[in-house]
Design a protein that fits this description.
By secondary structure, the protein is α+β, with helices and mostly antiparallel strands. It is built from seven helices and 13 strands. Strands 1, 2, 3, 4, 5, 6, 7, 8, 9, 10, 11, 12 and 13 form a 13-stranded mixed β-sheet that branches.
């Protein structure tokens, strides 16, 4: 039995993007895909079309359950169902950012995947190098203020991080409200917050999500009046200790977590970007209307003028 389900989050971004959840279930397994739906300004033959883009903090489609021997059959069925959805909803193209190479490999037959930059992380199964241990001691001992950290789990973790991040909402480059609308429904108990306090005042927090025995850092917010670099490193120290106790294998960090002076990162991965044209005929028509070669590197080609 096959079942494709579309959920409208009923939320709109400031730029008019519409968020939806596409779930495909069959006897072979379960795939969930969360994305933003964006209107294309130019119409074709009087019809309005859209493209799909990732939501900040969310990757591409994820296999939630599968009969391992039938994984490629499941991905094929998902692709057919999602193609039907795109046809019905006038979707022309899609961009995705995969959480890890594991997810990207699952969908290599669906998307054209490219390596866009390096990602950094900590292999918790490896011992911390001696010079990093000295750096940790230095961090704890040279800051002459009372400092402590705590690890929050489940719904309380999400509430505390939202509250702290809300204090700096105007300074953030991302829209946390849009992210947590979906996080509250689809992450639930899988979230972890790391909180750093000085004299009882919270000065920095990071939000992590547990996935496949790994921790993925989604957001870090630090009080700009604090010791920015030191706070970021103490967050990494705290989550390393917690992950070690919980037998978590790896911690993947966001770009803003990478420090040049104190580096705990000992593994790298490729941050992978996927693209797909779901309606080649309309894609070509849009490019022709704008006198743009559809084969250019920029994707989707018909939006190149909007970003120049």
């Amino acid at each position: 039995m096959k079942n494709a389900n579309i959920q409208d989050s009923n939320s709109k971004a400031k730029n008019g993007k519409k968020y939806e959840v596409f779930e495909f279930k069959s006897d072979l397994g379960h795939i969930k895909h969360i994305f933003a739906k964006r209107k294309i300004k130019l119409s074709v033959n009087g019809s309005i079309y859209y493209d799909l883009i990732p939501i900040n903090g969310w990757g591409g489609p994820i296999i939630l359950s599968v009969n391992s021997e039938k994984k490629w059959d499941l991905v094929y069925e998902f692709t057919q169902a999602f193609q039907n959805y795109c046809n019905e909803q006038n979707i022309v193209s899609e961009e995705v950012h995969f959480e890890s190479s594991r997810e990207a490999i699952d969908f290599l037959d669906v998307y054209e995947v490219q390596d866009i930059r390096d990602g950094y992380g900590i292999d918790v199964t490896r011992p911390i190098k001696e010079n990093y241990i000295n750096d940790l001691d230095y961090l704890w001992n040279t800051i002459d203020l009372k400092m402590e950290y705590s690890i929050l789990e489940g719904t309380n973790a999400m509430k505390c991080f939202k509250r702290f991040a809300g204090l700096y909402k105007g300074d953030l480059k991302f829209d946390l409200d849009q992210y947590f609308v979906l996080a509250e429904e689809h992450i639930k108990e899988k979230g972890i917050s790391v909180e750093i306090c000085i004299k009882g005042e919270v000065v920095g927090m990071s939000w992590f999500v547990i996935q496949h025995q790994s921790l993925h850092c989604k957001w870090t917010v630090i009080n700009s009046n604090s010791y920015l670099e030191e706070i970021g490193n103490l967050i990494k120290c705290a989550i390393y200790i917690w992950a070690k106790e919980k037998e978590i294998d790896k911690i993947w960090l966001t770009k803003m977590n990478i420090s040049q002076e104190v580096s705990f990162e000992n593994i790298t991965t490729s941050i992978l970007h996927g693209k797909k044209v779901w309606n080649r005929k309309v894609y070509k028509q849009l490019c022709e209307e704008l006198n743009i070669d559809p084969r250019i590197m920029y994707f989707p080609a018909y939006r190149i003028e909007e970003n120049n």
